Each structure stands twice: as structure tokens, then as C-alpha cells.
């Protein structure tokens, strides 16, 4: 397409990976556009970092405010940052369509970097759709962007570092937590111990974890370990009133108005899927991730991926990957050997930072009840399709998620499969005795975020 | 709006206040925050009912991926409350079931 | 999987290759004649026009170059009620059939005039009657008050309707299996070997034998046909379809470009492109479809598009179906068309009966659908 504004590099997502990449790209002389859905840069981890809201900096802690330094990357003269920009289409002729406040624009690019981060793993369990149940990440976003803490009684349930972090942050903020219901299975500790070598190499992360557990212990919050059979229950008004679970042989029920849930994070692969990039199943992290070269190149030579959207590594890893990928892109576009200077050192730091992952991934692998739900548990939140219905369709000729989608509408709602995709694949794999890789994933269609028909019509030639 | 669902506000840096109307009630929100945050501060629950079964929902992910925070914002139905910043005078109502079609002339 | 090739994993009276709407309707109809049918289908990823189509049971304008096509289309539309009732009664799946008439909305006077001329010409070829109406904007507004001011008018076909094609497919599978039919996810059938009074099908899942074989593999028929001595001149024609979020009911009739489903979602489509086997979408075509849809129905402007896709129609040189038995290898049949929804009831009825019994109902003018018409 001619006539469109052209960029050397378009980066989608202004989190740690995107911001770090933007800085490198600007310094390497690339005309760079960075698009982000939020009104302010930072991604979810450094959400609102340019304008912190809480008076008490100790609540969110140093790790959050460390993100302030990344903002500098966006002020480089060659870098254009567009906020509130929702990318809804990318075509293979290197054209990208995005929407800002109801008006769509198109730009052209030589290279594209997807730095779209992670989303929390959908955790289907009985009652997870009730008003009052939300993710730990959601609670953190409310804290970072509005200074809000959840209404009580408050229970936190699930497994993973983010669960411990939000618990500590809320404790520091003086919020009363009724209980922490830790669903990490006992057997995970044994499996994780096998990865202790890497864990020792990543001792800083271990220390952080130990400090968080200590902080929770000192606070006196009730802590239920190895809990199973998590259920959220509603009152007559349809809102959450209690949470129940089993620990050992004892069944517990706690009154509850807010339940924060978490089972780890998974890469946000929506755009890569829509572009039909190659993806692979990661058995340890129990998620899909794009197939990438050492320097972050996807199966399409002009499309690169950095940060959690390429595989979960956390904020520091994302930042390093962002720099590596930007250096690689600059090298490809400028053909200047000088541009790759420093890449070896970055790779070494990256390896050190990733050393802890196998330990964490084994330790926080979710309970089976969350990965492969049964019976009347809702799997597709939008179309309200249950696990039993998806499983049953394997009896009617369905061997993949695109067939079940056609037969029962799971994945056809406004979230476009983001909340049910991983689960549907897992359920079909379970029923058919196949691997998730064999079962496959939804064919994700454009637009990857809803766009109004009027806005789309505005791009038509006949409108001019 | 049941006040006992209100999310509590911690001591914050100075921010301008924005007056908005949520389900007919005037409330104050902080400039720069999202509609989803504002209605949770106000204690609104549920914030929508589904078009499939009519069951209640409220914001779940706060980052634009679950689409459970869809509300009617300034007459525009099915708008993601967690992706929309509050603006002075904004009128927000619960999204009840399937949306109306109005033609966008609002 | 073991290395031993699973020979003759199954045999059946009739093998139907292709588990889409066409194949399943044929299979169901043959089954009703008491024959054992196996349907061989591909996996999760296949071209599948059955999944990508628009869901119209459409009569008006069909067969303007072949009166026999008009007749079989109208016959199918008449038989559709019975098919729907049978499926709903036995499977409990509501396939959402509505046949209250349909509209073809025209944006310009010249478009409306040429459409009117085409329908008048068709009416002249059907002395027993060919019902349609031409509505100006004022008359159209009485049917659809929300119609846009820039619309010129519409043609009305009382026999038109629509259905949920996905639930139709699901119901057909359920009904077929409940009657003892076998559905095999065989992957692509790579070869058909005609043997004495038998056919052997080869696929990655092994070999299967049958007495009769029916090719209903859509675009796959092009390569399968010659294996049984039939030329299948099919080629892809892409249509891009948009689907918008659920909205409260506003449109009581399907139109050629926009329809509202029972769930409330709004489908917009009807592009026709010659792009080979590319099922992708293009921003400019989607924008044109959105532009036309919002010109017809301005109230759709702020409705959100959720999904879009490209589906491949299975076209023939004259756009009409091919129904024929192989002269070289009797017992092998080709069934292909681009209107698997509209013709579903004809396929499950008279076409299946002809394959099962060898006797063709004169009402379907079978010889008119022979592929030899392309060799002139």
C-alpha cells in the first residue's frame, strides 16, 4: 500500500519489553512507532508508572518504581508513542490498522515487534464468573492506577508469585485478608526440587519469595496450604457470598465478598495467532508460545516478539529481550555490524535471569482441576459453555477446537477466545487422548479487538 | 448501589475529581482512572448481565482481555469499562443482556 | 500408532467423502433407504465451506441461467421445513430455520432495475409462477423501518429464509450417528481405487472399502473426481464475512448482505473474489462490506465487529451444481454445489434417493446437472 505513513519499526505494547526496545531502536536511528492500549505507558507490571498514585511508596515496593527509568526510551526524538491505541488488524503486506478513541488509522512498517505481554491464565472453577471474583492481577491494577483495595471479607486463592506479591502489597496497605488459600499441590514441591540448581543460580528470586512468605506469616493471615476443590458461591442477589475448599479431609467455607484468584500467567498470543505465526505447546509452563529464533524472530521474517508474549520470563527478562530484539532489527535494517555490539553480554544476563524459571514453573504448575475442568463448570465465559458440553462434542466428530467452536459457540464471544482457548484445547486433548499440540488451537480471526462497523466502514475507498 | 461492595481508596497523590453518574447516582471519581475502577469504588455489582443467561458479571481482569466489564457508557452499549477513562459528566449504566442498536448518533 | 497398516478398517455399502453439509445430507438420505453409510471427514483444520457460509436458504435469483436449478432450489426450499422438523425432533437441536421471506437490498436505482429485469426474465421461464416483488424505499421501510435513506429499494422473495448453518451441521452429525451412521475422521482421502464392484479408499488412517462412493468433498472433488472417471471442474471463489456482537432483535428478514441470527449477532458479507485457496481476510474488502452494511442499516454503525473470515465457495463454470454418476465406474457419484444450505433438503431427499435407488425423481431434471454441459 502506498500513501500510508511508513515506519522502520512498529512496536505493539509499551511494557518493559516494548519500552526497552523503543529506546534501543531510537538510538540505532530507526523511525519507530510504539502503540499501546493504555492511556499511559508501563504495561501491566509498571502500570501508571509515569504518574504513580499511591502516597505510600512502600506498598507497591521498589520493583514497581524501578520501571520509571524505562520511560526515558519513549522520549527519544525518533520514537513516537501513541497511547490509547488498540491494534485490530495486521496484514501480511506489512500494514497495521489501529484505533484511537473511535477513529481507525493505518500505517506501514518494515519490521513489527509484538510486545503484548501476558494475561492471567484463565482458571475455570465453580463460580469463577460471579461478581466479586476477580484476578490477582486485576487487584494490582486497581492498586496501581486508582489506589483502590478490595471490599472485604477478602480471600485470595490460587498459586504463583503474583499471588504472594498482591497479598504482601495489600497487607502493607493495611487491608484485612481473611485467608490465603494456596492451591499449589504438595507434589509440585518435589518436582521443583529437581530444578534446585537453577533456583540457586537465581537466588535473588528465591530470596524475594522467602521474604514474601515471611511477610505473610508475620501478618497473621490464615494460610491454607495444598487446598483443593475451590468453589465460589453466590447469594440470592447473584453476587459472591462465600468461598469453599477442602484441605486434607476438612471442608472449609468462608464468607467472602471479594475473591482474588490466580494460577500464573500465560503469553498473550492473540495477534500472533491471527497472523498465523507458528506456535508450540510448552508442557512445563502449560501454555502456548510462539516459535522464536534466538533473536526473537517469529516464523514470519518481519515479525519479532519480545517479553512475556514470547514466553513467560517476567519484567527484567522482558526488558533484556526487548533490547536484544531491537538490536537485531536495527542490524537487519541498517546492516551495520556495530549495531549488534553488546548482544552477547545481554544474552548472558538473560540466561542468568531465566535460571529460576524451571523451578518456578514446576512449583506453580496449576492443579488439574483448573487445567482440565469437569462437568458444569463454565469454560467459555462469554457464551457460557460448560466443560461437559465441550467434552461431549468429541462424541460427535469433533477432533479440534475449531469444530467445537462451530458446534457450541465457545470462543465466539467478545473476548474472542482469550478466556477459553487454552482450556478447550486441554479438554479435547484429555478426551481424545492426544497432546495439545495435536489438538491445535482456535483459528483467531481479525479484528483481534472489536472495532465498530462504522469505524471500519470509514476505511473504505468508496467512502472517500 | 450497595455501599458494602465499595472498594476502599488509599491515600493518593492529588488528583482532580470528576463527577460522573452511575446508575442515576452522582459520584466522584479521580481524573485518569477507568470507569471500571470508579464503579467498583462506588460499590456497583453486578456491572452487566449476560445476553446468554442473564447472569450477573463484574470486572474480572481489568486489562481488557475478559470483556466482562462491558457497560453502557454515555449511551454507547457494550463498552469496556476497564479500557475507558472517566470524563466529567459521564453517564454510566449497567449493560443488561444484549445491547440495543441505536446507530451511534448518541 | 503402530506401524502395521490398518487395512480394511471398515467397509460399508456407501462411502461419502466429505463431512460437510452436502455430504451429511446425502448420507442421511441414503441411510433412510436402509443402507449402511460411512462418512469420511477431515480434521479440525479444513477449508469447510459448511463452517464459513452465510446461512441463507435462498431462492430469489437462483438459476437465472438454468431453469432446472431454479426448480430444484424451490423444491429444496419447500422440503426444508420437513428436514428441520425431523432434525429438531430427533436431536433436540434447534437449527433456527425461518422461511418468512427475504430481501435483496439495492443501493442504486440501476442495481434495482437490473435485478428486477433478471427476476422478470426468470418469471417468464416459469409459467407455473415465480413469486417476487420489487419494493421502493417507501415500501421497504414498512417492512424494515431502520433501513437507511440512501437505499434505492429491494427485491422481495417470499420463499427465502435462513437457518443456523453451524447448528445444522451439528444436528446432521447427531442424526446421522443416531441412525447408525459412522463418521470417520480419516484425514484427506488420498486415493480411490475402483475394483470389481467395489471401491477402496486410501487415507492416512488406512484403507476402507465400499460398494458405492459419493464425492461430496467440495473443492477436494477436483482431485478425487478423476480417480473415478469424473471431471469435477470446481474452483474456489472467496467470500469474506463479518460478524458483529449480539444485539437486541432489529431485523426480521434475512437480506442478501446482512442478516441477524437468532442469537442476536449480525452477519455481513457477500464479497466474491477469485483468490485461489486463500481463506484470509483483507482490510479493504472488510471495510467495503462494512460500508455497504452501514449504508443499508445506519443503526449498525456503532455495533462492534467481533470476527471476520474468508470462506471459499465451491464454484463451477456456470455456477450451477453437478450431480452425476461415473459412466466409467458406475457406483461412483459426484455431488457438488455452492449452496449446501439451500439445497440441503433436496440433497437429503431426491438426490440421496437417486443415489440409493438408481431412480431419479423427474422433478429434479437430473440430466441438466451432468458435467458434460461444460464440455460443449
TrEMBL record, chain A:
CDD domains: GlpA-like_Fer2_BFD-like
The entry's keywords: Oxidoreductase
Signal sequence segment: none
Pfam families: Pyr_redox_2 (PF07992), SO_alpha_A3 (PF17806)
Residue ranges of domain SoxA A3 in the record: 379-458
Presence of the UniProt keyword Acetylation in the record: no
Top-level taxon in the UniProt lineage: Bacteria
Domain FAD/NAD(P)-binding: start-end pairs: 7-322
Name the UniProt record assigns to this protein: NADPH-dependent 2,4-dienoyl-CoA reductase, sulfur reductase
Keyword Signal carried by entry: no
GO MF, any single term: oxidoreductase activity
Coiled-coil boundaries: none
Record-linked InterPro entries: BFD-like_2Fe2S-bd_dom_sf (IPR041854), FAD/NAD-bd_sf (IPR036188), FAD/NAD-binding_dom (IPR023753), Metab_Enz_Cyan_OpOx_G3PDH (IPR051691), Opine_Oxase_asu/HCN_bsu (IPR017224), SoxA_A3 (IPR041117)
UniProtKB/TrEMBL annotation, chain B:
MF (Gene Ontology): iron-sulfur cluster binding; oxidoreductase activity
Domain of life assignment: Bacteria
UniProt lineage: Bacteria, Pseudomonadati, Pseudomonadota, Gammaproteobacteria, Oceanospirillales
Protein's recorded name: 2Fe-2S iron-sulfur cluster binding domain-containing protein
Key words of the record: Oxidoreductase
Matches recorded under InterPro entries: 2Fe-2S-bd_N, 2Fe-2S_ferredoxin-like_sf
TrEMBL record, chain C:
Molecular function terms, GO-annotated: oxidoreductase activity
Domain FAD dependent oxidoreductase residue range list: 13-354
Pfam families per the UniProt record, alphabetical: DAO
Keyword Cytoplasm carried by entry: no
A GO CC annotation given for this chain: cytoplasm
InterPro entries for this protein: FAD-dep_OxRdtase, FAD/NAD-bd_sf
UniProt superkingdom: Bacteria
Record carries keyword Transferase: no
Keywords: Oxidoreductase
PANTHER family, sorted: GLYCINE OXIDASE, SARCOSINE DEHYDROGENASE-RELATED
Record-given protein name: Glycine/D-amino acid oxidase
Organism of this sequence: Amphritea atlantica
Amino acid at each position: 500500500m502506498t500513501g500510508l505513513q511508513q515506519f522502520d519499526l512498529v512496536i505493539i505494547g509499551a511494557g518493559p519489553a516494548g519500552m526497552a526496545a523503543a529506546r534501543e531502536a531510537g538510538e540505532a536511528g530507526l523511525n519507530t512507532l510504539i502503540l499501546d492500549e493504555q492511556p499511559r505507558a508501563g504495561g501491566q507490571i509498571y502500570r501508571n508508572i509515569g504518574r504513580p498514585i499511591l502516597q505510600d511508596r512502600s506498598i507497591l515496593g521498589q520493583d514497581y518504581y524501578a520501571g520509571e527509568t524505562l520511560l526515558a526510551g519513549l522520549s527519544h526524538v525518533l520514537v513516537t508513542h501513541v497511547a490509547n491505541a488498540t491494534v485490530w488488524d495486521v496484514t501480511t503486506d506489512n500494514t497495521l490498522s489501529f484505533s484511537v478513541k473511535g477513529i481507525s488509522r493505518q500505517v506501514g512498517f518494515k519490521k513489527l515487534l509484538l510486545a503484548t505481554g501476558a494475561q492471567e491464565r484463565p482458571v475455570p472453577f465453580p463460580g469463577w464468573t460471579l461478581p466479586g471474583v476477580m484476578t490477582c492481577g486485576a487487584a494490582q491494577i486497581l492498586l496501581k492506577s486508582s489506589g483502590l483495595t478490595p471490599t472485604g471479607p477478602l480471600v485470595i486463592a490460587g498459586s504463583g508469585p503474583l499471588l504472594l506479591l498482591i497479598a504482601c502489597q495489600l497487607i502493607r496497605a493495611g487491608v484485612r485478608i481473611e485467608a490465603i488459600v494456596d492451591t499449589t499441590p504438595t507434589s509440585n514441591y518435589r518436582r521443583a526440587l529437581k530444578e534446585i540448581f537453577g533456583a540457586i543460580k537465581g537466588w535473588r528470586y528465591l530470596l524475594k519469595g522467602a521474604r514474601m512468605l515471611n511477610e505473610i506469616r508475620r501478618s497473621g493471615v490464615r494460610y491454607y496450604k495444598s487446598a483443593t476443590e475451590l468453589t465460589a458461591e453466590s447469594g440470592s442477589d447473584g453476587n459472591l457470598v462465600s468461598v469453599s475448599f477442602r484441605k486434607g479431609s476438612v471442608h472449609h467455607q468462608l464468607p467472602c465478598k471479594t475473591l482474588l484468584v490466580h494460577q500464573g500467567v500465560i503469553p498473550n498470543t492473540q495477534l500472533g495467532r491471527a497472523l498465523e505465526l507458528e506456535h508450540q505447546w510448552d508442557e512445563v509452563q502449560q501454555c502456548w508460545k510462539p516459535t522464536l529464533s534466538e533473536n526473537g524472530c517469529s516464523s514470519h521474517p518481519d515479525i519479532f516478539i519480545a517479553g512475556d508474549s514470547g514466553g513467560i520470563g517476567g519484567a527484567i527478562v522482558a526488558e533484556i529481550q526487548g533490547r536484544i530484539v531491537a538490536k537485531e532489527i536495527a542490524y537487519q535494517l541498517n546492516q551495520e555490524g556495530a549495531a549488534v555490539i553488546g548482544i552477547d553480554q545481554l544474552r548472558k544476563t538473560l540466561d542468568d535471569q531465566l535460571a529460576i524459571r524451571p523451578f518456578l514453573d514446576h512449583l506453580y504448575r496449576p492443579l488439574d482441576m483448573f487445567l482440565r475442568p469437569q462437568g458444569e463448570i463454565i469454560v467459555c465465559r462469554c457464551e457460557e459453555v460448560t466443560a461437559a458440553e465441550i467434552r461431549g462434542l468429541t462424541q460427535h466428530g469433533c477432533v479440534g477446537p475449531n469444530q467445537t467452536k462451530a458446534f457450541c459457540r465457545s470462543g465466539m464471544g467478545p473476548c474472542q477466545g482469550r478466556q477459553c482457548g487454552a482450556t478447550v484445547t486441554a479438554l479435547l486433548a484429555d478426551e481424545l487422548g492426544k497432546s495439545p499440540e495435536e489438538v491445535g488451537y482456535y483459528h483467531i480471526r481479525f479484528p483481534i479487538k472489536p472495532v465498530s462497523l462504522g469505524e471500519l466502514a470509514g476505511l473504505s475507498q468508496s467512502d472517500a | 448501589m450497595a455501599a458494602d461492595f465499595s472498594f476502599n481508596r488509599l491515600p493518593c497523590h492529588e488528583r482532580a475529581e470528576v463527577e460522573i453518574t452511575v446508575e442515576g447516582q452522582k459520584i466522584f471519581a479521580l481524573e485518569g482512572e477507568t470507569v471500571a475502577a470508579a464503579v467498583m469504588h462506588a460499590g456497583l455489582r453486578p456491572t452487566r448481565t449476560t445476553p446468554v443467561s442473564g447472569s450477573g458479571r463484574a470486572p474480572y481482569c481489568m486489562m481488557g482481555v475478559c470483556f466482562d466489564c462491558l457497560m453502557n457508557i454515555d449511551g454507547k452499549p457494550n463498552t469496556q469499562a476497564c479500557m475507558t477513562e472517566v470524563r466529567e459528566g459521564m453517564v454510566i449504566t449497567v449493560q443488561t443482556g444484549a445491547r440495543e442498536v441505536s446507530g451511534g448518533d448518541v | 500408532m503402530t506401524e502395521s497398516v490398518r487395512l480394511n478398517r471398515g467397509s460399508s455399502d456407501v462411502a461419502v467423502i466429505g463431512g460437510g453439509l452436502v455430504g451429511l445430507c446425502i448420507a442421511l438420505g441414503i441411510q433412510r433407504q436402509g443402507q449402511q453409510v460411512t462418512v469420511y471427514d477431515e480434521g479440525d483444520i479444513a477449508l469447510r465451506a459448511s463452517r464459513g457460509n452465510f446461512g441463507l436458504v435462498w431462492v430469489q435469483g437462483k438459476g437465472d441461467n438454468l431453469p432446472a436449478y431454479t426448480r430444484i432450489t424451490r423444491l429444496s426450499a419447500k422440503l426444508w421445513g420437513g428436514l428441520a422438523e425431523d432434525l429438531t425432533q430427533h436431536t433436540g437441536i434447534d437449527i433456527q430455520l425461518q422461511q418468512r421471506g427475504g430481501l435483496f437490498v439495492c443501493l442504486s436505482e440501476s442495481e434495482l432495475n437490473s435485478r428486477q429485469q433478471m427476476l422478470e426474465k426468470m418469471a417468464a421461464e416459469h409459467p407455473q409462477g415465480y413469486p417476487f416483488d420489487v419494493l421502493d424505499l417507501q415500501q421497504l421501510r414498512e417492512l424494515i423501518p431502520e433501513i437507511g435513506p440512501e437505499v434505492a429499494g429491494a427485491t422481495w422473495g417470499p420463499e427465502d429464509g435462513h437457518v443456523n448453518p453451524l447448528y445444522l451441521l451439528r444436528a446432521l452429525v447427531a442424526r446421522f450417528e443416531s441412525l447408525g451412521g459412522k463418521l470417520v475422521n480419516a484425514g484427506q482421502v488420498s486415493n480411490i481405487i475402483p475394483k470389481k464392484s467395489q471401491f477402496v479408499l486410501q487415507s492416512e488412517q488406512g484403507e476402507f472399502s465400499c460398494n458405492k462412493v459419493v464425492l461430496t468433498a467440495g473443492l477436494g472433488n477436483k482431485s478425487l473426481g478423476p480417480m473415478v472417471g469424473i471431471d469435477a471442474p470446481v474452483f474456489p471463489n472467496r467470500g469474506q464475512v463479518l460478524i458483529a456482537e449480539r444485539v437486541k432483535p432489529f431485523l426480521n428478514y434475512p437480506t442478501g448482505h446482512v442478516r441477524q441470527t437468532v442469537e442476536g449477532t449480525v452477519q455481513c458479507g457477500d464479497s466474491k473474489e477469485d483468490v485461489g485457496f486463500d481463506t484470509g481476510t483483507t482490510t479493504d474488502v472488510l471495510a467495503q462490506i462494512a460500508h455497504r452494511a452501514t449504508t443499508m442499516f445506519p443503526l449498525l454503525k456503532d455495533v462492534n465487529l467481533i470476527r471476520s473470515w474468508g470462506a471459499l465457495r465451491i464454484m463451477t463454470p456456470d455456477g450451477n451444481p453437478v450431480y452425476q454418476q461415473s459412466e466409467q465406474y458406475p457406483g461412483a457419484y459426484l455431488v457438488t454445489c455452492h449452496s449446501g444450505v439451500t439445497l440441503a433438503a433436496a440433497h437429503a431427499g431426491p438426490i440421496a434417493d437417486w443415489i440409493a435407488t438408481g431412480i431419479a425423481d423427474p422433478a429434479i431434471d437430473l440430466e441438466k446437472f451432468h458435467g458434460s454441459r461444460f464440455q460443449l
